[in-house]
Amino acid sequence: MSTSTTLDRRRTGPDYRQFLPLVQSATLIEWTGTGLFLAVSTIYFVKVAHLSTSSVGTGLTIGGAVAIAAAVPIARLAGRFGPKPVLIGVMLLRALATVGYLWVDGWWSFLLVVAVIAVTEQSSPPLVQSYVGARAPESLRAKVMAVQRTVVNLGISLGGLIAGVALGSGAPGAFRPLLIGGALAYVMVAVVYATARGEEAATAVESARVADLLKDRRLLGFTAYNALVSLWMPVLNVAFPLWLVTATDVPERYVGILYAVNTVLCIALQYPLNRCYSTTRRAWYSYATAALLLSCGTLAFAAAPGFGTREAALVLGAAVVLLTFAELLQVGASWTLSFDLAPERARSAYLVLFNTSRTVANRVAGPVLMTGVVLALGTAGWIALACVLLLGALVPFAMLRGPRGAGD
User: Fold this and answer.
1) Residue 42 half-sphere exposure, CB side, CA atoms within 13 Å?
2) How far is CA 354 from each of CA 21, 81, 129, 241, 347, rounded to the nearest angstrom?
3) Residue 8 reports pLDDT greater than 60
C-alpha cells in the first residue's frame, strides 16, 4: 500500500463515506434556505421595508465591505478552533439575521442586518470546504467539490421554486413564512453539524497569525486573481439583465429563460467537468479557459445590440452559455488551487480569507464596475472588459512555469 493512500485513510477516517452524505444533506438544506431568501430579498426590501432601490444597493455594497473586513477575525477563529464550531456559530447567526429582516423599519436597521448576512454568507462556503475537504482523499477532492456545487445549485433552484409558488399565490403575508423558513433551514444545518460524529480527528489546527496571512503574497495574489475571474457573477447578475433591457429589443422574459439555462447547465455539467480541475496543472488551465470564455462572452454581449430581436436573443443566449462554462471551470479550479495553497494546519483561516475574492467580485467592486464603467461606456466598456480578461487568461501560464505549478 502506498504512503499517500495510507495518509489519505489516516486523514479521512473510516467514516468518510458515511460522513459525506450527511454534509451534502446539510448543504442542500442550507442552500434551499438561501434560495428562499434570494428569491424574495429585493422585492421585500422595496415593497415591504419601503426602501429605495438606491439605498438597497448602497446597503448591500457596504455589507460586502463589512464582510471583507470581518474575514480576518473569522479566519483567526477558524484557525484557532477549527472549522466546525465556527461554522455552527455562523449558521446560528445567519438564522438570527434572516429573521431580523422581519423587523427592518429603516435604512440603518437594514444595514445592520444585511452586514451580518454578508459576513455569514461569505464565511460559510470556505468553512464547509475546509471541513469536508480535510476528510476527502486528495484524489477525490475535485469530485467531492463537484457534487457539493451540484447540491448547491439544486438547493438554490428548489428554494427559488418554493418562493415563486408562495409569491405567486398573491398572499400579502407570503414573505414572513419564507424568511422564517430560511432561518429554520440554517438552524437545521447547525444541528446537523453539531451532531455529526467522528470528524474532530480529521486534522489538527493551529492559531493562524493575522500578520502571516496578510504577508503571504501568494495568498493575496491568488485572491486578487480569483476576484478578476469571478467577475462572471456581476456580469451575469447585474450587467446582463440591465443590458438586455436597455440596449436590445429582446423581451424581458428572456432574462428568466436564460437564467434557467444557466442553472440547468450548472446542475448537469458540474460533476462531469470535475476532471478538468482535478490536479494543480489542470486547475490552472481551467482558470485560463474560464478567463478566455468570459472574455468571449463579454464580446458577445457587446455585439448583441447590433442584431434584430431574434438574432440578439441567440447572441445573448450564447453569451450566457459561455459565462456558464466559465463559472463551472472557475469555481472548480478555485476549490482545487485554494486547497493546495493553504497550509494544512491553518487551512480554514486561509480559505476564509481567500473567499473574500468572491465578495469583492460579487458585492463590492463588481456591481460598481458593471454599472459605472461597463454599462456606462456601452460597447466600448464591454470590449475593454474583454481585453482585461484576455490578459487574465495569460496568468495561469506564467504560474505553471514556476516550481509549484509544474507538477500535475
Assistant:
1) 8
2) 26, 18, 12, 28, 10
3) no
Cβ neighbours around 267 below 10 Å, total: 17
Is residue 16 predicted with pLDDT exceeding 70? no
Helix axes 107-133, 309-341, angle to 10 degrees: 60
Query: E strand or H helix at 356, and its extent?
Result: helix 356-359
Per-residue pLDDT at 11 exceeds 70: no
Residue 360 near residue 313, CB atoms below 8 Å: no
Count the Cβ atoms, other than its own, within 10 Å of residue 188.
18
Residue 173: enclosing H or E segment and its boundaries? none
User: What is the structure's pLDDT at 406?
Assistant: 46
Terminal C-alpha separation, the chain: 21
15 CB neighbour count, 10 Å cutoff:
14
137 close to 14: Cβ distance less than 8 angstroms: no
* Residue 72 burial by Cβ neighbours in a 10 Å radius (0-12, 13-18, 19+): middle
The string of pLDDT tens digits covering residues 294-327 is 999 999 999 999 999 999 999 999 999 999 999 9
Axis crossing angle, helix 253-269 with helix 141-168, rounded to the nearest 10? 150
Distance separating alpha carbons of residues 61 and 43, to the nearest angstrom: 17
Residue 38 is which amino acid? Answer: L
Q: For residue 343, which of 207, 196, 146 has the smallest C-alpha distance?
A: 207
Interaxial angle between packed helices 83-100 and 53-81, expressed in degrees from 0 to 180 and rounded to the nearest 10: 160
Q: Which three cell numbers stand for residue 365?
A: 467592486
